[in-house]
Each structure stands twice: as structure tokens, then as C-alpha cells.
Amino acid sequence: MKKVSLKSSFLLFLAASIWGVAFVAQSVGMDYMGPFSFNGARFLMGSAVLLPLVLVRRKKDREKHVERAGLKITLLGGCCCGLALCAAALCQQIGIMYTTVGKAGFITTLYIIIVPILGIFLKKKVPGRVWIGAVIAAFGMYLLCMSEKFSLSKGDTYVFICAILFAVHILVIDYFAPKADCVELSCLQFLTAGIICSILALILEKPQISNFIDGIIPLAYAGIMSSGVAYTLQVVGQKDSDPTVASLILSLESVVSMLAGWVILGQALSGRELLGCALVFGAVILVQLPVGEKQKE
Fold first, then answer.
1. Which of 60, 118, 218, 235 meets the CB 3.0–4.6 Å disulfide criterion with 29?
2. 297 falls in which pLDDT band (50, 70, 90)?
């Protein structure tokens, strides 16, 4: 198993921090425009940021005579990933309008547990610790989101659906990533999601140029930093890292989102909600802990 170097750990944590603070940018962005407009602009920005990296990588591959993935599978993968990303991001963006940044970050992190559970339908074996983690996470979710009337808030419901859709998104990427260039796949998925959201924005929200100008700071952060820069940091950081340890570091985005919501937006959580966050995060760590050799066999 590859060990994670200090440099790789720092890059991965930096990516997680950027994603965690992005929840604040998404929340603030709602003061200037609707969810369709915001996501449309941010994803198109993300695609534009990754485009130079795509061109540089293509040039290097040509110079080294490296065989590249077929255009058909790359386009198909980009479109499929983009559709899943678009649906997940819209649910998340709408949910953030009605819940706190901290809650949204922790609920979204549940995709790490939902992925192996969905894997059952793909005939993949689910370790016992995943079921234990699911139970712990469910109780944590209860403390975090449920009111005394035993009902989920509107925002929490949207973000939970978002977590399920992000799990689907990860499984779609898992299918296409080995068959296509990862950076090109990401660039195309951002482009696909951006076009879909922009079309829906023109139909449902009729945005004005002034909306984007006024909200350029949260838009630029979510589009350039969260999509373009953080993704590149993830690619570089994971190059020499064990994927299990890397995903554990990246999941710290939920902690960062809670702290960012508290420090920047003043969205404090109650003791009950903090305990729920701790249980959800503990479940995420449990699911991702390295498996011993005997268990693997």
C-alpha cells in the first residue's frame, strides 16, 4: 500500500478545505441569483479553468506518443457524469437555501457510506463495518437533522437527496474513469452540467447580467477554486497516495464546511447537532479505515 507523503497530505487537505468553504460561497451566492443560474455559471467556469490543463496534457501525450482514450467513450462519459453532477449539485444548491452550511456539509458527506450500499445492486460485497457505519451515521443524521416533531426540514431533505445523487455520480465516474482521461472527463462533465443548468436558468429564472456581476466573488470561488483548482490539487495529491487514505483526508471538507459556516456566516450548531456531526464523521472514518490483509482475503 502506498504511503501518503506530507506534500500529498497537504495538497489533499487544501482541496478539502477549498470544497468545505465552497459551501459558504454557495450559500452567499443565493443572495444574488437562483440555484440554476449559480450552478450554470460555476460549472462553465470550472470547465474553462480545466481546459488549459486538458490541452497541456494532450500536448505532452503527443510528444511521448502515449495512446489516448477514444473520443466516443470520453464524450459519453462526460455527458453521463455531467447529468449526475447537475442533478446532485442542484439539489445541494436548493437545500443550502433552507439549511445551514454546516449541516449541508455533513449530510453531503454521507455519499461515502451510500456508495458501498448502492454497490449491493451491482453485486459488490459490502463489509460488515459499512453496515455498522450506516447505523451510526443514521443516528447521527437523526440528531443533526430531525426536529422534535420527527420531521426533516426542507433543506435537509434536498441535501440528503443530493448525497444519494453524488453517490450515483461517483459510481458513474468509477465506470468511465478507467476508460477515459480523468481531466478531460471532469472538464466535459462540468461543461455538460453548466449547459443544462444555464438552459434551465434562462427558462425558469431569467437571470440578468447584473446578478452575475454582483455575485462574482462567490461565483468565482465556487467555479474557479472549488471546481478547477481543487480538482487539480486532488489529481496531483492522489498521484502518490493510497486512495483510501486520500479519501479520508478529502472527507474533512465536512468539518471545514461546519467551521466556515460558523466563523464566516455565524451559523452556530446546538450541542445535539454537534454530537450528530461527530457521529456522522466517525461513521465516515470507520467506513474508510484500511482493511487488514486477512480481511481482504
1. 218
2. very low
| Torsion-angle region of 272 (φ positive above 0: left; ψ -120 to 50: alpha; else: beta) | alpha
Report the C-alpha gap between 155 and 145 in whole angstroms. 10
What is the 8-class DSSP label of residue 148?
A: T
pTM for this structure? 0.78
Q: Are 92 and 38 in contact (CB under 8 A)?
A: no
Secondary structure of residue 147 in the 3-state scheme:
coil
Cα–chain-centroid distance for residue 65? 34
- What is the DSSP code (8-state) at residue 70? -
CA angle 227, 25, 268 (to 5 degrees): 130
Q: Three-class SS string for 11-44?
A: HHHHHHHHHHHHHHHHHHHCCCCCHHHHHHHHHH
Pairwise CA distance, residues 277 & 272, whole Å:
9
Q: How far apart are the first and last CA of the chain?
A: 15
What is the separation of C-alpha 239 from the centre of its chain, rounded to a whole number of angstroms? Answer: 19
Residue 190 has pLDDT above 80, yes or no: yes
What is the rounded CA–CA span in Å between residue 236 and residue 182?
A: 12
Picking from 93, 82, 99, the residue whose alpha carbon sits closest to that of residue 43 is: 82
Tell me how far apart the alpha carbons of residues 218 and 264 are, in angstroms, rounded to a whole number.
Answer: 13
The answer to whether 85 touches 189, Cβ cutoff 8 Å, is yes
